[in-house]
Amino acid sequence: MSPPFQPPSSHPPLLHLLQKTLKFHPSTSPFTLVLDSLEQSAAGLFVAACVAGVKAEAQIIYISYTPPNLNLNIDIDTFIPARRKTPEALKREITSACSSSSSTKRRRILLIISPLTTLLSRHPTLNISSYLLSLLSPTTSLLGIHHQDIPFPAAAANAPSSSSSPYQPSPQTLLTYLATTILTLHAFPQALARKTASDRSAREPLFGLAENRPGVIAGMGGNAYARAGLVLEMEHRRKSGRAVRGTFFMPPPPAPDAAGFGGATLLEEHPLFGAPDVGGEKEGKGKEGEGGGGETTFELGLTEKQREAREGVVLPYFDAQKEGGGEGGRILYQMGTEDDFDEEEDEI
Hints:
Shape: elongated
Structural class: alpha/beta
Helix content: 25-40%
Order of helices and strands: HEHEEHEHHEHHEHHEEEHHHHH
Number of helices: 14
């Protein structure tokens, strides 16, 4: 059994930005969009967001279209069921819950909507940009979870309103445009399988629905955060408009009931994601002191016989320096029958 992965002690700016983003502070990221799939769900990130909200003494308001999972040991202040409610009625309940928190000592509010896919598919004429922006405030941050594998109905996928142009972007494209930070989740075993295939110049494997096999919904190695960790792609947009991107490895929690994303590191620093081993590299390093070639797959050194033969070769410019000129530096030219005799050229 391999030893547990220990992240490096140094924290580059990307890791510092990730830690600030996962605190879901309004000043860092007012709207954080999480893109999950059947291969890797956002359940672990949802629990981590609730833990971060509790540590920051923020009021957590959870809006869900599904019943809450009672097995998750999380602390939620307000739960709002969104099933069979219009967007206007749902907005009134959210506003009422946010206003009630102003009377408490908590200054921050964390809104969690899961999933945004259901909100967009059931209300295709909803102006999602103005709707989500109306929920935000200087003290309110929004965390939206979007399922990428759930297709939108034709009315929602083609146009957000009945009178809109067919060139309107899809709902998912619109969400990625509105979000300040986009977090895309991948299963670590599947990402490792793709990396192994890429190192061998082989075709990358497909998983889940991408396999196009009858009856296959989820691929092998999916939803392995509890035992193997996950891969998180982050795209953060600063106020200047510049996007900062990074790919990270989130190790599994130390206990099955533990929460939080502790020990995150860059994916390229993971031992299994290092540079591929080149055949003969170790052999070349062992002979580096004998004749170089430590970074090649073949021997560049010379044997004793080859070295003596090379030292015995007399180069032309050395032969021309001998007394009398030698024979190595002379240029011999024999005129042909068609050559014209020219005294000036012959003197040169």
